């Protein structure tokens, strides 16, 4: 099992009240599976994705990524899990404005301790696969929205993660570019036997996923 979330709850203290964002949710995603999480704003989608990617700890419940149980791990160990096992694609590409496109990818490898020729070859291969090899020496400001999202996909795949997590990856794109971006994620899932979860409001891309799960009022349905 690539991702296993069992009986996950998340609550916050808001003054005198306890606000429950997630309520006893469970989800398993296997290798080669692409799952979409849909639901209204405020339903807990982003919190769910943050917990799935070890960015946020649940109040109760268990989460396992790539065979590693996360509860009780130190902050340093969780950082390593995020670098080694999880690839994030955020709503905005979140590229570093002063780094060339190729260097955006090499930075991820360097953070994980992977330097040298192998990392450079991996970056070049990903850029070529995603049609960005001619843009390798460009800065983000010169790229279109679709190109930036493709860079974000390449960056997410740089360390060969077990699971890909995408948060509204089509939000800033038109229908055609959005569909292409999600299609690229779907192809990567199948080609390299990854697991992926995408939070989305965009029903136009749901034909590309294997399973759709709805979240409402903190419950998975």
TrEMBL record:
UniProt keyword terms in alphabetical order: ATP-binding, Nucleotide-binding, Transport
MF term (GO), any: ATP binding
PROSITE patterns on file: ABC_TRANSPORTER_1, ABC_TRANSPORTER_2
All copies of domain ABC transporter, residue ranges: 3-220
Domain of life: Bacteria
GO cellular component: membrane protein complex
UniProt similarity note: Belongs to the ABC transporter superfamily.
Matching PANTHER family: CELL DIVISION ATP-BINDING PROTEIN FTSE, LIPOPROTEIN-RELEASING SYSTEM ATP-BINDING PROTEIN LOLD
Protein name (database record): Putative ABC transport system ATP-binding protein
Origin organism lineage: Bacteria, Bacillati, Bacillota, Bacilli, Bacillales
């Amino acid at each position: 099992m690539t991702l296993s979330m069992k009986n996950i709850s998340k609550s916050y203290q808001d003054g005198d009240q306890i606000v429950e964002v997630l309520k006893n949710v469970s989800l398993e995603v296997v290798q080669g599976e692409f799952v979409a999480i849909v639901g209204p704003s405020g339903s807990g989608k982003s919190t769910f994705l943050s917990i799935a990617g070890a960015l946020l700890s649940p109040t109760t419940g268990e989460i396992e990524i790539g065979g590693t149980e996360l509860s009780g791990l130190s902050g340093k160990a969780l950082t390593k899990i995020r670098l080694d096992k999880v690839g994030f694609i955020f709503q905005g590409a979140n590229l570093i404005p002063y780094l060339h496109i190729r260097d955006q990818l090499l930075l991820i490898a360097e953070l994980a301790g992977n330097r040298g020729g192998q990392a450079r070859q991996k970056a070049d291969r990903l850029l070529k696969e995603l049609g960005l090899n001619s843009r390798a020496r460009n800065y983000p400001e010169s790229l279109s929205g679709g190109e930036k999202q493709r860079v974000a996909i390449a960056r997410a795949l740089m360390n060969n993660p077990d699971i890909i997590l995408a948060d509204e990856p089509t939000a800033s794109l038109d229908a055609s570019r959005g569909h292409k971006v999600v299609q690229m994620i779907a192809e990567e899932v199948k080609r390299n036997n990854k697991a992926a979860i995408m939070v989305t409001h965009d029903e136009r891309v749901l034909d590309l996923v294997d399973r759709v799960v709805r979240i409402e009022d903190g419950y998975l349905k």
